[in-house]
Amino acid sequence: MKKSIQVFLLLFCFCSYGIAQESKGIRFEALSLKEALAKAGQTGKKVFIDCYTKTCGPCKYMAKYIFPLEECGTYFNHHYVCLMRDMQEGEGIEIAQKYRVRIYPTFLILNPDGSLYCCMEGGAVSKPEDDFVGKVKDAVRLSEMNRAYEAGKLSGESMQEYITLLRRKDKRQLERVLNDQMPPLGVEALSEPKNWQIIREEVTDYGSRLFRYLLENRKAFEKKVGEEEVESKIVSVYRNHFRIVKRMCKDFRQPISDLKTLEKEGYPEVKALHYCMLFREIINSEGSGRTREIISALKKLPREFPDAKERRQIAEELTGIEKIATPTQLAEIRRLKANL
Q1: Are 290 and 333 in contact (CB under 8 A)?
Q2: Per-chain mean pLDDT for the chain
Q3: What is the chain's alpha carbon radius of gyration, rounded to the nearest angstrom?
Q4: pLDDT at residue number 19
Q5: Is cis: bond before 327, omega within 30 of 0?
Q6: What single string gives the DSSP state of each residue in 195-252?
Q7: Which of 75, 166, 329, 330 could lock 174 by a disulfide, CB 3.0 to 4.6 Å apart?
């Protein structure tokens, strides 16, 4: 009898420990969404929904290793009424349709009226050390700042915080904000170290308003941050543009015109890129009447580019030349290419 009591007490201790451990994590409640929204309204909280499917590996990982963490329980249980929903059955199907859930897991945060407050797509973390709570806080803060930005209520330090968050979380919105906010600041302000660093690291789109502003005011920027710095930034954007669109048969006439101007101004790095764009422009446009331009350029390459590796890199853009060259021209092009 005494031994039975001891065994019972031991089992009770293990069970109690398991319950305590579980209670440290997120408490997902057995409520309908309607009930959860009502409870959120009564308690001043919002509703957090873990949107999962039974076959989703990252969903299982989150449930097993992340949600039970004490720091998750401390944060989520205080701020949210928490639900788990399978998006492929029951109420989950309706939730998936209403909030356009397409990636699993997705984490929804809803206002008590059911409107979407914040959405995080994907697993968010791959190990406990990745700090899921921190990522959710960032997503919530970013969602709040997106709304404030659209309402015209961000400026000064708040705008700096917003840009910092966007640099980590949303490159597409970052591009839009930089194009809206930075050109009006003028060259003087944009040349300050913190702003120039953003331009140097984040401006990559050839057609963006901010890049065009930099290009049009390059001489003024050169006086502030240095010729080499400005040249390096401008050339990197043109290279990025060329790398992205060269296989899409895009029109390179405007970039080529820009590069010609920069070449005349003494930007040495643009010459090779100019030739690469010229070759692709002629071949992509199937300009058979311009094949002689390519042959003429190939003859000049050894003189203009002492580095054989650089000459060969330019010649790599001759892919597809057979579409526009006559047999005689093709033979000459192959001979010139072999001698580079």
Answers
A1: no
A2: 89
A3: 30
A4: 38
A5: no
A6: HHHHHHHH---TT-HHHHHHHHTHHHHHHHH-HHHHHHHHHHHHHHHHHHHGGGT---
A7: 166
Rounded Cα distance, 240 and 202, in Å: 12
The type of residue at 236 is S
Instruction: Report the DSSP pairing between strands 46-52 and 106-110.
Output: antiparallel
321 pLDDT higher than 50 = yes
Token digits of residue 335? 């001979």
Instruction: Give 254: exposed, middle or buried? Use CB within 10 Å, 0-12, 13-18, 19+.
Output: exposed
Tell me the DSSP string of 31-81. Answer: --HHHHHHHHHHHT-EEEEEEE-TT-HHHHHIIIIITTSHHHHHHHHHHEE
What pLDDT, in 10s, does the model give residues 34-68?
999 999 999 999 999 999 999 999 999 999 999 99
Nearest to 218 by CA among 254, 271, 262: 262
Cα–Cα distance, 270 to 108 (Å, whole number): 48
Cβ–Cβ contacts within 10 Å for residue 70, how many? 11
Are 66 and 125 a contacting pair, CB within 8 Å?
yes
Residues 6+ apart with CB under 8 A from 196: 190, 225, 229
pLDDT of residue 222: 96
CA distance 283 to 295: 13
Contacts 24+ apart (CB under 8 A), 246-253: 246/277, 246/280, 246/284, 246/317, 249/284, 249/285, 250/284, 251/281, 251/285, 252/277, 252/278, 252/280, 252/281, 252/284, 253/281
- Bridging pattern class, strands 80-86 and 46-52: parallel
- The rounded distance, in Å, linking the Cα atoms of 204 and 181 is 16
Q: Is the dihedral of CA 274, 279, 285, 289 positive or negative?
A: positive
For residue 260, the 8-state DSSP code is H
Contact between 198 and 174 under an 8 Å Cβ cutoff? The reply is no
Structure tokens at 315: 């010649």
β-sheet bridge partners, residue 134: none
